[in-house]
Predict the structure.
Amino acid sequence: MTMRWLALMAAILIGPATALPAAETPSATLLKPAGVFDGVDGQVHAGWQVLVEGDKIAAVGPNLSAPIGAQVIALPGDTQMPGMIEGHGHLFLHPYNETPWDDQVLHEALALRTARAVASARATLMAGFTSERDLGTEGAGYADVGLRDAIAKGIVPGPRLQVATRAIVALGAYGPKGFEPGVEIPQGAEEVSGVDSIVAAVRRQIAAGADWIKLYADYRWRPGEDSRATLSLDEMKAAVAAAHDAGRPVAVHAATAEGMRRAIAAGVDTIEHGYGGTPEIFAAMVAKGIALCPTLAASDAVARYRGWNGSEPAPASVLLNRSSFKLAVKAGVRICMGGDVGVFAHGQNAREMELMAAVGMAPAQVLIAATGANARWFRLDKRLGAVKIGLLADLVAVSGDPTADIAAVRRVALVMKGGMVVGR
């Protein structure tokens, strides 16, 4: 996937009117909102302002002075906060009620999927999510590496990406399925079997550009069956060791209790979904400092695609997800804000935050999960995640007070990335 090709796609999809700002960007910008949520202490500091110089935050506090020539942006009634961080996304997927997952993997051309991912990246950025951890291309190979690099070079707009490339599954345990046995069908992730095989896959994906390694601890062996543990503990330990030796953290899809137990024993960094979590399992996660991305929005979206209208009682899958999330929060598990976006529409990332609050997490804690906490879990906190002097000026202004009404994060008034206003 060449940078020139990605640039052409961006020109077609985005057009010159929304090109990234260039040399005319002022050297300093003073942002004057009603208050600042710094992503750390859970408070909105009324009267605070933010001074940006170059791509960094230069000052935070009340009554700041603008340097000569600085741009001053008044944001009355708005709350300034760090750019939000999507913790679990798939930019190369789009909602399953538009096209089923199997058909996206098998029938959509790589060029089409990449073009759509460019548009999805822009929608994510404009929604106030200035960073994203993308956990697998689901059959689109290493195209996420090219997209990440195109965004970093300013060729196309989008969030700062950490990518997991192909992800890793046990041989025979993933999909698409349902075809003539013995016929090789393209898969949504890289298949492995045995310790040597999984270590080779980890190293291969890192060499191709993976920032994270994504493993599937469990899955359904056949359509309609319940999920079961797939990768052995020895396989997972070997994969984690190989990834950590290379300085890459490991995220693990785990929906069953046994899958979670193996992931914890293997020393992974985050667990995705965690539907089968118990008080004992979550206590073990706390002891090892493993974060959970509960993906409430994914189970909610899938249930709606299957006919649920949102009324209570919710389907069993949604209730299980809510229950496991409550148990995790009660146990003190580190919570990652990540909705499995791609199952539902990119740019609607705030859906996960609203559901976290609806299940009982205080809005301020949801906001921290989407900013300062995600930055820590993803090893970005020395650069991002807080409104703090010296950090990159990835900032979002939302209309109203999101600590009082989490839905305020949908009312995006301004998006700044690296000191440049990219959406207003």
